[in-house]
Prior knowledge:
Layout: E1 52-56, H1 61-72, E2 77-82, H2 88-96, E3 101-105, H3 111-125, E4 130-133, H4 148-176, E5 181-184, H5 187-193
Parallel strand pairs: 1-2, 1-4, 2-3, 4-5
Amino acid sequence: MPVTANGTTTANGASTTLLNGQANGTSVQDAPVISTLPAADFNWKITLENKIIAITGANRGIGLGLAEVCLANSAAQIFSLDYMEPGEEFFALQKKNPGKVHYIQTDVTKEESVENAINAVVEQAGSIHGMIANAGMTRHQPALQFDRAQIEQLFNLNVYGAFFCAQIAARKFIELGVKGAVSRQIFTFYRQQTD
């Protein structure tokens, strides 16, 4: 039984659909190759040239990796909004990128802390163009063992913290007339839950 380019046939083997304007009965072998990929010489690199990016939880781990990626794509400055003090890896990135990597102590579960941090970014850098809500946590234990305090801690950081960051950054973009972007980094939860 002949199969058409999109895989449909009738009981007698005749095609019932069209693909790219071709007549019924076109076989898979005769079908044109369709690709959604760009040309082989396409430049996949994004540019963050002259952009100021704030990343929550960027003092270590995935957040610090995101900071490195932003810098590799020409970001002007990166601000880590983190509750914990920076460590050796953060200072190494800061040393490698003089004047471009900064830390502002921030508790993303508190709106006032996030607002103060965003204002400090703008005061220091003159603007803000991106917010990556990376900070998050999980607990490795069966769901039946969670108590209310643990659930509230998870929601305060993972849900409300991300929301506060997105909302406050968006308000600042509007205030400054900046076409900004907010991203929620979710790989932390996926990676940790599949360990």
